[in-house]
Amino acid sequence: MSDILFVAFAYLCGSISSAILVCRLAGLPDPRSQGSGNPGATNVFRFGGKKAAAMTLFGDMLKGLLPMLLANLLEPGAALLAMVGLAAFLGHLYPVFFGFRGGKGVATTFGVLCGLHWQIGVVVAMIWMLMAALFRVSSLSALTATLFAPLVVWVQTGGSLPLTIAVTLISVMLFWRHRSNIRGLLAGSEGKFGSG
Questions:
Q1: Helix, strand, or coil (residue 94)
Q2: How many CB atoms lie within 10 A of CB 92?
Q3: Which H/E stretch holds residue 24?
Q4: I want to staple 10 with a disulfide (CB 3.0 to 4.6 A). Which of 88, 142, 167, 172 is the partner?
């Protein structure tokens, strides 16, 4: 029963839209009606500035990290951790509190990975930073880091199948949510950092 409650708790945590709440508190427009329409840190930055974007980023990371850390207190098996991480991610994509219209899940995924093991978070963050430094394209950095995340999890966890499958599913869904960005990358029209 406690396992089911933890999975439900993770989904509800993921359903809290940091972008929408930050924008409401800051007196900014609903991010779903501005810019790309995505309730995430990158879109909030476009019209709300660095502070609002940083708060959104932190909130989205925290809602992936917190359920994982709390679940770890139970000394769970890999299967429960996999379900908790997947539930938090799905909550962000399909938030029950906001009409099931959520973000793309990059920051929440990073929170889940950090909660799984801090070294996984560090390696994935390093991949993101390398791509960002080389190409200065947010979506390309996120997609590349996400692409390698299942391999990093597999190596770090000693080949845990449940965790690797969960992170692979997260990666596939994240790529699907970024399909418009992928089209932009292929067309050479995807915006760079600081390009507005």
A1: coil
A2: 30
A3: helix 18-25
A4: 88
CA nearest neighbour of 3 among 66, 82, 62: 82
- Contact between 175 and 146 (Cβ < 8 Å): yes
Q: Which of 152, 104, 128, 116 is nearest to 10 (CA)?
A: 116
pLDDT tens digits along 143-153: 999 999 999 99
- Residues 120 and 96: their CA atoms lie apart, in Å, by 29
42-84 confidence digits (pLDDT tens): 899 989 999 999 999 999 999 999 999 999 888 789 999 999 9
Report how far apart, in Å, the C-alpha atoms of 181 and of each of 7, 100, 176, 190 are: 30, 21, 10, 7
d(CA 94, CA 178): 15
Q: With 0-12 CB in 10 A as exposed, 13-18 as middle and 19+ as buried, what is 164?
A: buried
Which is it for the CA torsion 149, 173, 71, 125, positive or negative? positive
In 76-189, alpha helices (H): 78-93, 106-116, 118-135, 138-156, 161-177, 179-187
Separation between Cα atoms, residue 93 and residue 105, nearest integer Å: 6
pTM comes to 0.94
Residue 100 CA to residue 94 CA, distance in Å, equals: 4
